[in-house]
Design goal:
alpha/beta; six-stranded mixed sheet; three-stranded antiparallel sheet; 21% helix; binds 1-O-pyrophosphono-5-O-phosphono-alpha-D-ribofuranose
Length: 190
């Protein structure tokens, strides 16, 4: 690893996949594009999907140079962890009325795409002025539904990643980098 971890050395953290400097650089690029695209359409409403997006959203929003508001939505997948059954339900809804608002949904990672597909359909039914999405990470090889991600940070291979908001069973979310995490064939941390 090329950075000091916030937690004791852990052999399950295989390697740093994206270090904090690379993340910061990409976040600034994304924020610049978004600020440019939404100039004159503000205040933009940035919608974070809990929990994974909370760190990315905080960094991204602080780099936007257009007026914006922030709200959150919490979703949960049915079924066993990592099975990607496709069933998504809302645990906590937005507090803001989104009709005629310009919306940007912010996600930490898109795997199957079921989460974004569900949420974009749900939000579209509420008649926003516009609706786009931004995902820090994307695993195109796992995609099950055809979703269009307007702003993507990094495309990554099919490996389990933790840090910068992403977890393994609620651990590692606050690592300042994105690391590969080793799981065994049963989907468990070794
Ligand atoms: C993760 C991630 C996305 C979703 C992506 O959430 O944060 O929301 O899975 O997967 P998909 O593209 O296959 O739908 P998770 O259910 O792990 O919850 P969390 O954000 O609270 O960690």
């Amino acid at each position: 690893m090329n950075e000091i971890p916030q937690i004791p050395v852990d052999k399950k953290l295989v390697r740093v996949l994206i270090d904090s400097a690379a993340i910061e650089h990409r976040v600034v690029q994304l924020a610049d594009r978004i600020s440019s695209d939404y100039a004159g359409k503000s205040p933009l409403l940035v919608v974070g999907i809990l929990k994974g997006s909370f760190i990315f959203l905080a960094d991204l929003c602080r780099r936007l140079n257009i007026p914006h508001h922030v709200d959150f939505i919490a979703l949960s997948s049915y079924g066993m962890e990592g099975t990607g059954s496709g069933a998504v339900r809302m645990v906590m809804d937005l507090k803001i009325d989104i009709k005629n608002r310009h919306l940007l949904v912010v996600e930490d990672i898109s795997d199957t795409g079921y989460t974004l597909d569900y949420l974009l359909r749900n939000l579209a039914a509420r008649q926003p002025a516009s609706l786009r999405c931004c995902s820090l990470l994307s695993k195109p090889s796992l995609r099950k539904v055809d979703i269009e991600i307007d702003y993507t940070g990094f495309e990554i291979p099919d490996i389990w990643v933790v840090g910068y908001g992403l977890d393994y069973r609620e651990t590692y979310r606050t690592l300042p980098y994105i690391a590969e995490y080793r799981i065994d064939d049963m989907g468990r941390g070794e």
